[in-house]
């Protein structure tokens, strides 16, 4: 079983006498959980994510239970001597895939993110948005146990942003953990299991109401589950409301912007759930 990643009394500073960026951080990231990290610019959010991803080592404290981790940095370095496909294939082999499996996964993720047309383009010639798609693809192609996303949606077009949200639902649905920072307060609103704020170099868990589901159009989804199965936790988190209408039957209401994530979560559950109907509340007025 995938281990729980734990930070106990972790602190980080740069240089022997540099100021502490983070100190006294205690955090557990359980398998299957979705964790949001918030905070003003310069408070240490990216440093925390680098510690979680294993990019930086703590100056003090302990990190235990290290899962297989993939990381999308805030700034992807595009000045590498590869085409997009070659780079992703290389990274796939680094993550333990065979070269054939890595090439196949690279093609699949470029296709899903709308970048298949750039597979043979050198990274140095890609736009910022296309480079970001490659950065996202390299983190997803080996199905990590922990996915760490530092402003990963920035620079992506609307379709790619939605695809990344679906990928997050797939990872948590498969038992992986996801930790993310994003400047949009509506990103995955209502879905995280925990929200933490970095403030003055320390980490605080939010205990008030969860981030509300954004205003706007809603979609109503009727589902039927396998006998005796509980509604998947990821589906319950994404939905604005869930009502059990009969044995194994539920009616879920979700923000239209999150409907694809909900449907993918239900259809990729093990065993999968059957979607009986999808409509908007206006359809029944």
UniProtKB/TrEMBL annotation:
Annotated signal sequence range: none
Name the InterPro entries for this protein: AAA+_ATPase, ABC_transporter-like_ATP-bd, ABC_Transporter_VariousFunc, P-loop_NTPase
Q: Which SUPFAM superfamilies match?
A: P-loop containing nucleoside triphosphate hydrolases (SSF52540)
| One Pfam family from the record | ABC_tran
Q: Please give the Gene Ontology molecular function terms for this protein.
A: ATP binding
Q: Which residues form the ABC transporter domain?
A: 5-225
Give the residue spans that cross the bilayer.
Answer: none
Q: What is this protein called?
A: ATP-binding cassette domain-containing protein
**Does Hydrolase count among this protein's keywords?**
no
Give the record's keywords alphabetically.
ATP-binding, Nucleotide-binding, Transport
């Amino acid at each position: 079983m995938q281990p729980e990643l734990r930070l106990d009394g972790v602190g980080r500073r740069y240089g022997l006498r540099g100021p502490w960026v983070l100190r006294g951080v205690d955090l557990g990231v359980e398998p299957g959980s979705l964790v949001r990290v918030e905070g003003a610019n310069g408070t240490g959010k990216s440093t925390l994510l680098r510690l979680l991803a294993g990019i930086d080592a703590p100056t003090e404290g302990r990190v235990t239970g290290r899962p297989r981790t993939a990381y999308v940095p805030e700034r992807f370095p595009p000045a590498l001597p590869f085409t997009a496909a070659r780079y992703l294939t290389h990274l796939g082999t680094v993550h333990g895939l065979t070269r054939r499996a890595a090439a196949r996964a690279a093609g699949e993720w470029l296709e899903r993110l709308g970048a298949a047309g750039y597979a043979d383009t050198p990274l140095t010639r890609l736009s910022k948005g296309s480079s970001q798609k490659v950065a996202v693809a390299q983190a997803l192609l080996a199905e990590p146990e922990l996915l760490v996303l530092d402003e990963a949606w920035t620079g992506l077009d609307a379709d790619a942003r939605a695809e990344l949200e679906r990928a997050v639902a797939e990872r948590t649905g498969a038992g992986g953990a996801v930790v993310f920072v994003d400047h949009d307060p509506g990103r995955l609103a209502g879905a995280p299991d925990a929200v933490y704020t970095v403030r003055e170099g320390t980490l605080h868990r939010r205990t008030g109401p969860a981030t509300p589901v954004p205003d706007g159009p809603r979609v109503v989804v009727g589902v039927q589950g396998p006998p005796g199965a509980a509604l998947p936790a990821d589906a319950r988190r994404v939905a604005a409301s869930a009502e059990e209408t009969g044995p194994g039957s539920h009616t879920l209401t979700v923000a239209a912007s999150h409907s694809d994530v909900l449907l993918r979560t239900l259809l990729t559950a093990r065993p999968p759930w059957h979607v009986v109907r999808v409509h908007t509340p206006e359809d029944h007025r």
